[in-house]
Design goal:
Strands 5, 6, 7, 8, 9 and 10 form a 6-stranded mixed β-sheet that branches. This protein is an alpha+beta fold. The protein is globular and about 110 Å long. It is 55% helix and 7% strand. A hairpin with a 2-residue loop joins strand 3 and strand 4. One of its GO terms (molecular function) is DNA binding. Pfam families: THAP. InterPro entries: IFN-induced_PKR_regulator, THAP_Znf.
């Protein structure tokens, strides 16, 4: 909507003129002088804030030396500007009286207006011409619809912010190094607004021209308010199906740094209307304070911000590593105490053995895991580097082409994240060290200094006996859980039968622990032989001697690594597996016998009632569950000749007649929420990949929690009108642009 001049007898507006329009100042004394000079007695009782928000004076009422044009679209007043150029009111009234008395007066008035228009045209080169009838100035001033103008202005701002978020454009400029002040407006945001003005956004243009000071289009405070509104809109749309289905699980990812603070990325798993298992990103959690504080913050995030009920949380998983993993595990355990059905499970996106190793805080394990990550990054940068590794494998495995081909194929399959990572690492160790040394030597100047340096750093780690010994211990210890973990990431029937094999896994590990002396002797000998082949000296880590005072007794490497690596690793794996597979978790996995294919494998001799008892309150009608379960078994036992039984929860839920078994359907949906199950398809698992892309592509100082949320959930359809209404409701007293004098 246009701006209208508030001066008496001045009919100029921004639709028919490109003159600048200035807000009334909020300073009471200056505002009073403006009101007096413009001869508007009806405005004397209005507060300065009201006048500043709803009334303007055009540039024609100010001396030229009080006006400065700072850009093609920016005209500002000096701080002490007072309007002094106004028409004589008495003369105007006299002309009006003459107009009523005689027709000749109308002609005289028309001539007078034409002269005034001519003067305006000479004074401002961009003034729009009067209408042909010459009575444009006589038309009565229109009602100023400031509300509509503000809404359209806000809509333009929201549109730009959403676009920047979905395209991962940082809010602030790439060259900005100074700390942001209260009035700082990100330069990228400012530049896109100016581009939009040039492209023809009239609402932005009018708002920009009508401001009376040289401020940006949108203050940092208002921008933060807008980000909050968009965040709420994204979550509302994202979690609508979660609220409808009630049940969900939480997944906590690795720590990330945003704004100089550590945050936990939060994902939610749920079964949508099409019975697909989805995983969506819904925000970051500040990882600061003790366990109790973080737990309260997480629950508040889920309940207050997302509007979900933690009573319906059925599963939890975390992907953190190192020291932070222990703290996150304590948070998850605390939530499980408050909500026992929110069972801790492994996450389907991470192999069990990698998950177990990541949660260890031992120095040697940290060295191994960090080196594996460096290797993954190093070889992913260039195919030439991958080719160099293949050449090293061919050299080392001469005469063993079959083994060499297996290792080469493994190098293309994310081998650092697989169930057999540590077995492959041991087999590749000689080839890796040969490859790194060759790249570091760089005799033919084939590699850049950066690549050569990175190769040197990795080779130093690989040539450390602590790395070799820890790698061998991890390989042998986690070999007992390798098949078990692989089944957990398999089909539904494999997950079911894996739950029954946990006892055997723990029994084997406990046997190792009870005979640790014997097992450690074999493992140490294996590590020594591997080190000898690589010409790596067997020694105690230098850090050990720096931490321990000289006692006069020299500790032997075999004794040191038994106490500091073998025993801690074995005991940690036993404890972690016991914690991951609690009684409630195992009961949930045994309830998978409801899946028809598993029922068939068990010859329909199952006891789901006992295992499903923990979910009794989640059923639609618990009293009828036994009878319904009997009918469910009969249906698949006698009515499915030559029919392939559904083998997954998803396939079972897609059956047209599953709706006639409401309790079975409800229980399967609850189970499907658990993080241990693989997502339905790739379309349901894009959130983690988009988070990874955002973190890789966005420098730390450019990261923004809100913008990350928009980028990761870019598929959501944004309703700009709804956002504007929410903004005005949340901040009714906030001016869309703080262009105040």
């Amino acid at each position: 909507m246009p701006n209208f001049c508030a001066a008496l007898n001045c009919s100029r507006n921004s639709t028919h003129s490109v003159l600048a329009f200035f807000r009334f100042p909020r300073d009471p004394e200056r505002c009073k002088k403006w009101v007096e000079n413009c001869s508007r007695s009806d405005l004397k009782d209005k507060a300065p804030d009201h006048l500043n928000k709803y009334h303007r004076l055009c540039a024609r009422h100010f001396e030229p030396n009080l006006i400065t044009k700072t850009s093609p679209f920016r005209t500002v007043l000096k701080d002490n500007a007072i309007p002094t150029i106004f028409e004589n009111p008495s003369l105007k009234r006299s002309n009006n009286e003459k107009e009523n008395d005689a027709p000749e007066a109308k002609k005289s008035k028309s001539d007078s207006q034409s002269e005034a228009t001519k003067d305006d045209t000479e004074a401002t080169t961009k003034e729009i011409s009067e209408s042909k009838n010459g009575d444009q100035a006589d038309s009565s001033p229109q009602v100023i619809d400031e509300e509509t103008l503000n809404k359209e202005f806000l809509k333009s701002l929201f549109d730009v912010v959403v676009m920047m978020g979905t395209q991962n454009i940082p809010l602030h400029g790439h060259s900005d190094k100074e700390p942001r002040s209260k009035s700082f407006t990100p330069s990228n945001f400012q530049a896109l607004l100016e581009y939009r003005i040039n492209a023809g956004d009239e609402f932005l243009r009018k708002k920009f021209e009508g401001s009376s000071v040289n401020l940006e289009h949108c203050s940092s405070t208002q921008l933060q308010q807008m980000l909050e509104v968009i965040e709420n809109s994204v979550r509302e749309d994202l979690l609508a199906e979660v609220k409808e289905g009630r049940f969900f699980s939480l997944v906590l990812d690795n720590l990330v740094e945003i704004g100089g603070e550590s945050h936990l990325p939060l994902f939610i798993r749920f079964v949508d209307k099409t019975n697909c298992l989805r995983e969506e990103f819904f925000g970051f959690l500040l990882f600061e304070g003790d366990v109790e504080a973080i737990t309260e913050r997480l629950i508040a995030e889920v309940t207050d911000k997302c509007g979900l009920d933690m009573q319906y949380c059925r599963g939890q998983a975390y992907l953190c590593s190192g020291v932070s993993a222990m703290k996150v595990k304590a948070v998850v355990a605390r939530i499980a105490e408050l909500h026992p059905l929110a069972v801790l499970t492994p996450c389907s996106s991470c192999s069990l053995n990698i998950c177990l190793a990541n949660t260890m805080t031992f120095t040697g394990v940290h060295l191994v895991m960090s080196t594996l990550k460096k290797l993954d990054v190093f070889f992913s940068k260039s195919q030439l580097l991958q080719n160099q590794l293949e050449s090293a494998i061919s050299i080392y495995y001469q005469g063993h082409e079959e083994k060499a081909n297996v290792l080469k194929e493994a190098c293309y399959s994310k081998w650092t994240e697989q169930h057999d990572t540590f077995e492959v690492a041991v087999d590749l160790l000689e080839s890796l060290l040969l490859c790194m040394d060759s790249i570091h030597d760089n005799e033919d100047h084939k590699w850049s200094d950066e690549v050569a340096h990175n190769a040197f750093v990795i080779s130093e780690a690989l040539a450390d006996f602590e790395f070799v010994m820890t790698l061998v211990v991890l390989k042998n210890t986690l070999s007992f859980s390798r098949a078990f973990g692989k089944n957990l990431q398999g089909q539904t029937n494999e997950v079911f039968f894996a739950s029954s094999s946990l006892t055997a896994v723990l029994h084997s590990l406990n046997e190792v622990y009870e005979n640790i002396e014997v097992y450690h002797e074999f493992w140490f000998e294996e590590a020594v032989n591997l080190a000898a082949a690589l010409e790596i000296p067997v020694k105690v880590p230098r850090l050990y001697f720096r931490k321990r005072p000289t006692s006069g007794e020299e500790i032997q490497p075999e004794t040191y690594y038994k106490e500091q690596v073998t025993i801690p690793v074995v005991s940690h794996v036993i404890k972690e597996l016991s914690d991951l597979f609690s009684e409630n978790h195992l009961k949930a996995l045994k309830s998978l016998s409801l899946v028809p294919a598993i029922m068939g494998q068990l010859k329909f001799n199952t006891a789901e009632e006992t295992s499903a008892d923990i979910y009794k309150d989640d059923l639609l009608n618990p009293d009828t569950f036994p009878a319904e379960l009997h009918c469910w078994k009969i249906k698949w036992k006698h009515g499915t000749k030559d029919v392939v039984l559904p083998s997954t929860i998803y396939e079972t839920l897609q059956l047209s007649d599953v709706k006639f078994f409401p309790n079975v359907c409800a229980l399967l949906k609850v189970l499907y929420n658990l993080p241990v199950f693989a997502l339905t398809n790739d379309k349901c698992s894009t959130a983690k990949q988009r988070l990874k892309t955002y973190l890789e592509d966005t420098p730390v100082h450019h990261r923004n929690k809100s913008m990350a949320l928009f980028f990761i959930n870019c598929a959501i359809k944004y309703d700009l009108d709804s956002m504007v209404e929410k903004y005005l409701k949340m901040y009714p007293d906030s001016e869309p642009s703080e262009n105040q004098d």
